[in-house]
Design goal:
The protein is α/β, with parallel strands linked by helices. It is built from 13 helices and 8 strands. An 8-stranded parallel β-sheet has the order 7-6-5-4-3-2-1-8. It is globular and about 60 Å long.
């Protein structure tokens, strides 16, 4: 992976080309408010139509395994302990202890102070999920509110990266965004991206959490998505999971359309991560359909799509066992998160 300085320079160059000027409040407002407005009825109808599509029985096993490979297995509680994180990592490595063929998840997502325990527990399995490893993702930048001085946000990010985090999930300052201070939000994302740089010049991946439940309108979510991409985010993510509503299919469709349009404009592929409230394999399959029909099946890879979830994995495992045995197992056949 290229160093963050180079990546940041490239992102800035792309932003200048797209915006046609410096990314200040005036230029960003002109661009973001010049984006076509969202047709709420049309968006929700298209999402509902995609949600009715079913997959063939022969494809269900593939779908379930794909969901597992795309999960960021998450614990973000004030009561998290090193022991709980170690248990989470054990489940991440082998989700179904009765079936060694079960794939591992993409990443474990924890608070920054829990990163060293996750890295230690992963051991040799710590690595790129696209190559069979498991990443460590850390929430940062005063998660979940995002209300802190920039220096604190950057220190939070650097601490997690120095401890071994492969991915940083940052929250934007929704207050600044809703007040129209787009330049401030842009500059903070760029600064956090620069803080993702490691001593060896490589960089942790950066996910931009929009907290869509607080942005109020589809137009705002579209603008925040574009702002995150303009500032160099590697992923745009719906939610912290701490605010309702969290991930929804229409919002995820909107964000997928944004990354599709960004790819057509710049040639860059940006990831999408719906997070919060996705609990059943049936719902997760609907997300897979939304991805395949909007940006294509190429996006169904860990570096381009993730599910942020805690309880989803259990339901997928039960459905997977049903395909193997022909009957449903009880909930005690999977570990409790």
């Amino acid at each position: 992976m290229t160093g963050t300085a180079t990546t940041t320079e490239l992102a800035r160059r792309t932003a200048l080309e797209v915006l046609g000027g410096e990314p200040d409040d005036l230029t960003l407002r002109r661009f973001l408010h010049g984006l076509p407005g969202m047709d709420a009825v049309g968006l929700e109808q298209r999402s509902a139509a995609l949600g009715t599509r079913s997959i063939k029985t022969t494809s269900k096993a593939w779908a379930l395994d794909t969901i597992i490979r795309l999960i960021d297995l998450t614990t973000l509680e004030g009561a998290d302990t090193p022991g709980k994180v170690r248990s989470l990592v054990s489940k991440a490595k082998l989700p179904d202890a009765s079936d060694p063929s079960c794939p591992s998840v993409a990443a474990v997502c924890v608070y920054g102070d829990m990163v060293p325990y996750a890295v230690e527990a992963l051991g040799a399995r710590h690595g790129d999920p696209d190559e069979g490893g498991i990443s460590v993702a850390a929430v940062a930048t005063a998660f979940p509110s995002g209300r802190a001085a920039l220096a604190i946000k950057l220190a939070d990010t650097r601490d997690a990266v120095d401890a071994g985090a492969d991915e940083i999930d940052m929250v934007i300052d929704r207050g600044a965004f809703l007040a129209g201070r787009y330049g401030q939000v842009f500059d903070q994302i760029v600064a956090v991206k620069d803080a993702c740089r490691r001593a060896d010049g490589s960089s942790a991946s950066l996910k931009i959490i929009l907290e869509t439940g607080e942005l109020n309108t589809y137009d705002n979510i579209k603008r925040a998505s574009w702002l995150g991409m303009l500032a160099g985010g590697d992923f745009i993510k719906t939610s912290t999971g701490k605010v309702a509503p969290a991930a929804t299919l229409p919002v995820t469709l909107l964000m997928l359309e944004a990354v599709r349009d960004w790819h057509r404009l710049t040639g860059e592929k940006i990831g999408v991560k719906p997070a919060g409230g996705i609990r059943s394999s049936k719902d997760a399959v609907k997300y897979l359909v939304h991805v395949a029909e909007t940006v294509g099946e190429d996006w169904l890879q860990p570096h381009l799509f993730r599910f942020g979830a805690s309880s989803l994995l259990n339901d997928v495992l039960l459905q997977r066992q049903k395909l193997t045995t022909g009957h449903y197992s009880g909930p005690d056949y999977v570990t409790i998160d």
